[in-house]
């Protein structure tokens, strides 16, 4: 995939800040420090998202507009041209951030998914996200959501409670989603195969192994993104 352009567009703390220009929006959801922002940079092929070795870096919904070419050809046989947003959201499960950070995740994420849902026939979905000390739940209005979701988990930590809760919540969105297991470079080849199987067992579905470090799995992830971006 050739990325023709990838740029930061805006940071949104609430629904009013979310662009609604009709481009597909693909949101990255996952634990704090799992590597969401790093994955956005790896996909974009440039450093557009801020990353940190310390959890809790991303505090707002950050939207990046991407224009990429390649993958599936269009109807005329020309290389496919894909325009969409990647949405970097604050992570959950950052215990040291305490209630405030967890509340921020719930707030920003709830606002985000509320904003990209339509207004007709509103249904709602509730998510409860916990870490060792806190529970936080958020109810978001859901109808005709315009978005797809990448749930990012750490290949080394299959089946964390917070990830299972996030998976269940994402299922209520009734939008296309893909589970991605990242940081595979931190595992040996044999441990990696075992870990991916275990993540799939715990997540109860297929999981795409990737590494932002080595680039493993990024081509496959692009294929999924193209499918998600054209599935509205
Ligand atoms: P929050 O913004 O706190 O929610 O975190 P995040 O999910 O955006 O994580 P971020 O991308 O900031 O990455 C956290 C740390 O993990 C950084 O030190 C990254 O360099 C590292 N990291 C991310 N992806 C990978 C990967 O595929 N392999 C390795 N080895 N390190 C990675
Ligand atoms: Mg981040």
User: How far apart lie the N and C ends?
Assistant: 21 Å
Tell me the series of helices and strands, N- to C-terminal: EEHEEHEEEHEHEH
- The total of beta strands comes to 9
Could you estimate the helical fraction of the residues in percent?
Answer: 25-40%
Notes on the structure:
The protein is an alpha/beta fold. The protein is built from 5 helices and 9 strands. Strands 1-3-4-2-7-8-9 form a 7-stranded mixed sheet, sandwiched between helices. A two-stranded antiparallel sheet has the order 5-6. The longest helix has 19 residues, at 98-116. It is globular. The chain starts with a strand and ends with a helix. The model is unreliable at 117-134 and 138-146 (pLDDT under 50). Residues 30, 32-38, 51-53, 55-58, 90-91, 182-183, 185-186, 211-213 line the site of guanosine-5'-triphosphate.
